[in-house]
Design goal:
By secondary structure, the chain is α/β, with parallel strands linked by helices. It is built from 22 helices and 10 strands. Helix content is about 50%, strand content about 10%.
């Protein structure tokens, strides 16, 4: 069959959304014209639509080897590389596309998103701003620009962009949730928690509330004598932070069923009437509510956070760990320097273990790793590979004079226990820590140490080391915590 006819049929199939049929047409045409750049480009797009990213990449690279001056092919290759987690390569592809099409606003926007993935928000904002100027009606680019502004710690400017994006496309994924996070960061919690409900419309959040019978609890409905199912969502730290509302519901007379990740169940005992892991058979319930919707239901503001310690170490586990630690050799410091590597922002919030050195140089301390998987390379950190679960972690944290942690579950655990906890925060910290504060209404025992420059942990750790030196000095003067 004629190459041009096969090309036309393939294009028609792509326009109809039939990627497999389109790919078959392009492959058939390539038999006679194996180095046809246009066919290879189209095949790459069709294969990506079919989910064959490896085949799509090969086809696009072959097309560019035949005809290097295709701006669209470089741009589409960049899109594929970014989608497969290779932002540095994507950035190079976008730069080549921009060189060939310097006035293309879409390419500028794509380049900006790659820079966000590479944690370079200052540069990203420049390119995304140019893309918005080229097409002010492009709502998605405005959302991307707002994301860069959030990373630059400019939530007020980001909020304005999110609102413009929503005016252009009210149902655009990410716009409403972005607006919520900007509001919460700014301390506008009443409007922020209301807007934060938009998260439940996004695909990544839907598993938390799928196929639940009965009505959802929003706050005004009476709960005395009723059973209320609370559903954990997102990370372990989120569950530890927001489970604080379970006792408030019990105080209102509710019977509370708390569904939480299995690793947390041992430390949550006593917090609810029934604990369950996802997939467990649940008792009948009258209402259900996602855990992170409870601040909205309780109309929580920074002044009304239920902040009293709400978790406690199991006494038997505490006694066991006290025996394991033995005689005190100095100020006991618990350390957690890395979170879940699967977290989207883990590269920003975790720090390499050698960066802890200034803390370990403080005389008179006894350092303990609060990460069970840790095998500290620095012999001054005592590892505890026998930390079996969060009940063990709670007991060990309770025996520390101070816990120093990055923004991870360990920080929330220490705060929930009411233990002194120093939290080391990235420049663009999570919304729950708001802006510039050295304290937090969520945990009165916490002190926040913030980066002045993105990805620069030296100053943060140095500030914490000076504070630790002062604390160790005061304890040497006789004011020891005898836990």
């Amino acid at each position: 069959m004629d190459t041009e006819l096969l090309l036309a049929r393939g294009n028609a199939a792509m326009a109809a959304g039939d990627g497999p049929a389109a790919a078959d047409c392009y492959r058939a045409a390539l038999v006679a014209s194996p180095d046809h750049a246009g066919l290879l480009y189209n095949l790459g797009n069709a294969l990506r639509a079919c989910g064959d990213t490896a085949g799509a990449e090969a086809a696009l690279r072959h097309s560019l080897a035949v005809q290097p001056d295709q701006a669209a092919a470089h741009n589409n290759l960049g899109n594929l590389l970014r989608a497969t987690g290779r932002p540095a390569e994507a950035l190079e592809a976008y730069r080549r596309a921009l060189h060939l099409a310097p006035r293309d606003g879409q390419v500028r926007g794509n380049l900006g998103t790659a820079l966000i993935d590479l944690h370079r928000p200052e540069e990203a904002a420049v390119w995304l701003g140019q893309a918005v100027a080229a097409d002010p009606a492009d709502a998605q680019t405005r959302v991307n620009l707002a994301g860069a502004m959030m990373l630059r710690r400019a939530p007020a400017a980001a909020l304005a962009e999110y609102r413009r994006a929503r005016a252009l496309a009210p149902d655009l994924p990410g716009a409403a949730l972005g607006e919520a996070i900007a509001r919460l960061t700014l301390g506008d919690w009443i409007a922020g928690w209301e807007a934060y409900e938009a998260r439940l419309l996004e695909p990544r959040f839907r598993p938390y509330t799928t196929d639940l019978p009965g009505p959802r609890w929003h706050g005004p409905e009476p709960v005395r004598g009723r059973t209320l199912l609370l559903l954990s969502e997102q990370g372990l730290g989120d569950t530890l932070q927001f489970c604080r509302y379970a006792p408030l519901l019990r105080a209102r007379g509710a019977r509370v069923v708390l569904q939480a990740p299995p690793p947390l169940l041992p430390v949550l005992r006593g917090l609810a009437d029934v604990l369950a892991a996802p997939g467990d058979t649940l008792p009948p319930f009258d209402f259900w509510c996602p855990l992170m919707s409870l601040p909205r239901a309780f109309a929580t503001t920074p002044a009304t956070v239920p902040a009293a310690p709400y978790l406690a170490a199991d006494p038997a586990v505490l006694r066991r760990w006290r025996g394991r630690l033995g005689a005190r050799r100095g100020l006991r410091v618990g350390l957690a320097w890395a979170g879940n590597a699967e977290h989207r922002q883990d590269a920003l919030r975790s720090l390499p273990q050698p960066a802890l050195a200034p803390l370990l140089d403080v005389p008179g301390i006894e350092a303990h790793a609060l990460q069970p998987e840790a095998r500290p390379a620095d012999g001054r950190i005592r590892s505890h590979p026998d930390l079996a679960d969060f009940a063990d972690a709670a007991a060990l944290a309770a025996l520390m004079d101070v816990v120093i942690s990055v923004d991870t579950a360990t920080a929330h655990l220490a705060g929930a226990l009411g233990r002194p906890v120093w939290i080391l925060l990235a420049r663009a910290a999570d919304f729950r820590w708001m802006l510039d504060r050295t304290d937090t209404p969520w945990y009165p025992s916490a002190r926040l140490f913030r980066q002045a420059r993105p990805r620069d942990w030296a100053e943060v750790v140095g500030d914490a080391a000076r504070a630790l030196r002062d604390l160790a000095g005061s304890r040497r003067a006789g004011r020891w915590d005898q836990r």
